[in-house]
């Protein structure tokens, strides 16, 4: 196996899909990057990048290898950080729901940077179900996610005990159903007139809650429009043809127009999840910052 620098080069090329772009980011010559890639592929015994003219794409083996390479680089950084007792700068990979990233994390991450400017943070967003998988597999170190109340209260909650994760309550979110204004003062779920829901793809906790409250699985007239962001969902609701569900804290950041009304649904707790036994100085600093931020 080649050294960690070759892994770093490969990850950079895989992200840039360009030798020239990766060389620029790494401060290396394109020929040096190409040589390291060739030696790495020879060491692995598989083609990791498919070259078509001047463009690149990951091969099937490359997609698998990229995940491992990122984890090995992260583990190396974590090891140096832990054995130095936190004296070596650390980095943390955090996953988050889109809503939490929009309304809660800016203040938390700013406080973390102020207290620990030597630490780095890598932030990605995904639906809660995917975040659970990413934490379990070690792809990320921790994640802010939500679990549907119906899941916790049902026999399915027993599955949480075998995930090998720890959970810490962070924020309580008030979910609202955003609905076109139809002139009813105290609009309720029984007054929902549209039959289209704008929501994130499957795996989103808030989508599942919306489906449960609106009884969408048993009402075939409903359609679901999968959307990439809350801005798009609110825009669709403004057309008068869609409803959507989102935390009230996010809704207030979007400067909503007057032709929409909010129907309260329920409260859902956002939790920080991490693997049992995972304890590094940088992650402890992050949790302590979170706790101070919650006071």
TrEMBL record:
GO MF terms here are:
DNA-binding transcription factor activity; transcription cis-regulatory region binding
Write down a Pfam family by its short name: LysR_substrate
Enumerate the InterPro entries for this protein.
LysR_HTH_N, LysR_subst-bd, WH-like_DNA-bd_sf, WH_DNA-bd_sf
HTH lysR-type domain location: 1-59
Listed A to Z, the keywords are:
DNA-binding, Transcription, Transcription regulation
| Protein family per UniProt | Belongs to the LysR transcriptional regulatory family.
Name used for this protein in its record: HTH lysR-type domain-containing protein
């Amino acid at each position: 196996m080649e050294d960690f620098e070759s892994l770093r080069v490969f990850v950079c090329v895989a992200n840039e899909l360009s030798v020239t772009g990766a060389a620029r980011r790494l401060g290396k010559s394109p020929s040096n990057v190409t040589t390291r890639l060739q030696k790495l592929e020879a060491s692995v015994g598989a083609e990791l990048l498919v070259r078509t003219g001047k463009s690149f794409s990951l091969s099937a083996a490359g997609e698998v290898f990229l995940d491992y390479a990122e984890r090995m680089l992260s583990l190396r950084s974590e090891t140096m950080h832990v054995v130095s007792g936190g004296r070596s700068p650390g980095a943390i990979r955090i996953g988050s729901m889109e809503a939490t990233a929009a309304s809660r994390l800016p203040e938390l991450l700013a406080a973390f940077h102020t207290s620990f400017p030597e630490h780095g943070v890598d932030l990605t967003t995904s639906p809660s179900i995917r975040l659970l998988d990413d934490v379990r597999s070690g792809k990320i170190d921790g994640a802010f996610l939500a679990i549907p109340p119906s899941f916790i209260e049902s026999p399915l909650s027993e599955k949480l005990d075998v995930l090998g994760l720890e959970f810490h309550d962070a924020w309580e979110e008030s979910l609202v159903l955003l609905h076109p204004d139809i002139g009813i003062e105290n609009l309720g779920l029984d007054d929902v007139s549209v039959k289209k829901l704008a929501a994130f793809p499957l795996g989103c906790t808030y989508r599942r809650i919306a489906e449960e409250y609106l009884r969408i699985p048993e009402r075939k007239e409903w359609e679901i429009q999968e959307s990439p962001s809350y801005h798009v969902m609110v825009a669709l609701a403004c057309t008068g043809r869609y409803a959507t569900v989102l935390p009230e804290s996010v809704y207030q950041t979007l400067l909503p127009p007057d032709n929409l009304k909010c129907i309260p649904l329920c409260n859902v707790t956002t939790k920080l999840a991490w693997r049992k036994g995972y304890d590094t100085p940088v992650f402890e600093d992050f949790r302590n910052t979170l706790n101070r931020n919650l006071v």
